[in-house]
Design a protein that fits this description.
heterodimer, A: mainly alpha, MetI-like fold, 80% helix, 0% strand, B: mainly alpha, 2 domains, 15 helices
Chain lengths: 293, 356
């Protein structure tokens, strides 16, 4: 496929959709902010033209829906305007959230893979645990976030770990399910072959089961890290956390500071894209290495 | 003749040793409760019964295990007896798993044991209610605040979740069907819609509260947003899932695009749509509860959980969580059942039916 053709197939439609979303956003921002702006800014100043109205509603100080350029300016200012350690910069909050999400993700992956290994090797655990693991996902897991925070807080664990625990709770499920599926994916022929070699369970695991589970693992990791991020942000809500994107959302909604909410949201989305991209990159590296070997 | 070892020999042996130790310890204690000694004796008998897997012995084992477990709850806490019971519980779960029982029964037994030991340990070690209330306290709180929780359930599940879920999934499926004939839009929307799965959309909740007020419309709006994209992506994927052979057959029949959609492609897409519906059901409930953390009227499961946990009324919090879990599981189970009925032809479900 030539580059030109690829451009036509993908970039053009995606670009069109994004452009349409952008224009729609501006129109919505104008429609939502116009009446408020007329009341608060334009009417007291006397006569105004439609040009004034458009300019004012897209640059309102407390807009119902900020225009994209306002957001960009706000994020840019909050990143460059302050030193990295200042609580006013979004980078610090993003880092606080990202570190908790990544810790939780790591814990979730370890727990999920360990559980899956136990389940694959023990019929009792498969029958006794698997239904509960599946059922645990129909439970609104985030509802227990306040409880986990209180329990861990009363034991004296605060800061990053409680948030990471909640992220872990959300992460482990997709990993467990996919790993069980992956570890069971070797064909009967392959399993019988290693059986004729009199391979021990451990060898079978390293040489057959684990390699063939890799294609199942990475998609699960992508899902897990995305839900881990949501878990971390929700965990930042009820603690009255001082830092973190979730805390920014909450304080923003307390003080009616819409720009702050929206910038936190944009940063959270970028962080989500970044973390998922990281997993995809790791996947490419691992798979390429395996193909090369 | 070589006999097959009974499953869980290690557990049975250690249970026997511990049970005898418990009996000795209780007989040496000057002020021991006589009932505890009697129960320890029963535990020894139970352990002996576990040594055989004959039908009669298994039945007697189950009965005496149940009796001693129920008895132990009402007795003062005794660590050794509890440990023996735990070991025997493991044996019982293992035995049930070895027998050809459905997986649900084994899991149910495990859940039952879990709740029982939760009760025994929490009361035995006098864990403060703030950290972990006993199951009985949670049940009592559930009965006490039944009407309150019923109101919360209506507020959260019936109003926010149901309306948002139906609108969100309906819109997602509808848009997918609308752009079915426009490949340009499909290629443009699909990557964007897939990317939204990496974005924490719940964060829109404070904005929705600002736009639509504290009551359920703001929660429903967030639920719509969250459920829309999975429904759209899965439906688009499902509409491409029909086999080439069938498509060519429809072509031979000179079927119109509408006929092709209704008779072939939509039915073929149903398994995909249902998997999105199932994912969305849990997602919608979680989203509605979290959205209530950002401000809500004085009802709703999320509101109850956040306010009561701030007031340290943990049994109420746990019972609210119990109610929301039950609601979530119920909705999910309904969808699974509907899925089985509608998509009975799909290989993944056919295999399932054959296994049963």
């Amino acid at each position: 496929m030539t580059i030109n053709r690829r451009l036509q197939l993908h970039a053009l439609p995606v670009g069109t959709v994004l452009l349409a979303a952008f224009i729609l956003w501006y129109l919505l921002a104008f429609a939502l902010n116009a009446s408020g702006v007329i009341d608060r800014v334009l009417a007291p100043r006397g006569p105004w033209t439609s040009g004034d109205l458009i300019y004012a509603s897209l640059n309102a100080s407390r807009p119902l829906l900020p225009a994209p350029h306002q957001l960009m300016v706000d994020i840019w200012n909050s990143i460059t305007g302050w030193p990295v350690t200042s609580p006013r910069t979004l980078l610090l909050h993003t880092w606080v959230t990202a570190s908790a999400a990544l810790t939780g993700f790591a814990m979730g992956v370890v727990l999920g893979v360990l559980l899956a290994i136990c389940i694959v090797h023990s019929r009792t655990l498969d029958k006794a645990l698997m239904p509960w693991i599946v059922a645990s996902q129909t439970i609104p897991v985030l509802a227990i976030a306040p409880i986990v925070l209180i329990i861990l807080g009363s034991v004296g664990i605060t800061g990053l770990l409680p948030k990471a625990t909640i992220a872990m709770y959300l992460c482990f499920f997709p990993v467990t399910i996919a790993t069980v599926q992956g570890l069971r994916s070797p064909q009967k022929m392959e399993m019988e072959l290693v059986y004729t070699y009199a391979a021990r369970r451990l060898d079978t695991f390293w040489m057959v089961r684990l390699p063939s589970s890799l294609p199942y693992l990475f998609p699960a990791f992508r899902v897990a890290i995305a839900s881990g991020l949501v878990g971390t942000m929700v965990a930042e809500l009820p603690t009255g956390a001082q830092a973190g994107l979730g805390a920014r959302l909450l304080t923003g909604s307390y003080y009616g500071n819409t720009l702050q909410i929206w910038s936190a949201l944009v940063m959270a989305s970028l962080l989500g894209l970044f973390l998922t991209g990281l997993v995809t990159l790791t996947e490419r590296l691992v798979i390429r290495q395996r193909k090369g070997a | 003749m070589k006999t097959k070892a009974i499953p869980g020999t290690f557990f049975v042996v250690s249970a026997f040793v511990l049970a005898v130790l418990a009996l000795i310890q209780l007989s040496l204690m000057p002020h021991a409760v006589p009932a505890l000694s009697a129960n320890a004796l029963l535990l020894v008998v139970t352990t002996l019964l576990a040594c055989s897997t004959r039908r009669l012995c298994s039945t007697l084992f189950a009965v005496s295990l149940a009796v001693s477990a129920a008895w132990l709850i009402s007795l003062p806490y005794h660590a050794l007896s509890t440990a023996v019971l735990a070991l025997l519980a493991m044996v019982s779960v293992q035995r049930l798993a070895q027998a050809s029982t459905p997986a649900g029964a084994v899991a149910a037994l495990l859940g039952l044991w879990f709740i029982l030991f939760w009760q025994i340990l929490v009361t035995g070690y006098a864990v403060p209610q703030v950290i972990l209330p006993a199951p009985i306290d949670i049940l009592a709180a559930l009965v006490d605040s039944m009407s309150l929780l019923a109101g919360d359930l209506v507020q959260t599940v019936v109003k926010s979740v149901l309306i948002g879920y139906l609108l969100g999934c309906g819109l997602g499926i509808g848009v997918a069907l609308l752009i079915d004939r426009v490949p340009f839009l499909q290629r443009g929307l699909l990557p964007v819609a897939s990317l939204t799965s990496t974005i924490p959309l719940v964060g829109v909740a404070p904005i929705a509260v600002m736009w639509f007020g504290f009551d359920w419309p703001s929660k429903a709006a967030v639920v719509i947003l969250v459920t829309f994209f999975p429904a759209l992506v899965s439906t688009l994927a499902g509409l491409k899932a029909s086999g080439k052979l069938e498509q060519e057959l429809m072509y031979c029949y000179a079927a119109t695009p509408r006929q092709r959609l209704l008779m072939l492609r939509l039915p073929a897409a149903l398994p995909f749509i249902f998997s999105a519906l199932k994912v969305n059901a849990t997602l919608a409930l979680i989203t509605a509860i979290v959205a209530e953390y950002f401000g809500s009227p004085t009802a709703g499961l999320g509101f109850r959980i956040s306010t009561e946990s701030a007031r340290m009324h943990m049994p109420v919090v746990w019972s609210a969580i119990l109610v929301s879990s039950l609601a979530g599981s119920l909705i999910y189970a309904l969808l699974v059942r509907l899925d089985r009925r509608v998509n009975f032809w799909h290989p993944s479900l056919r295999g399932d039916a054959a296994a049963k």
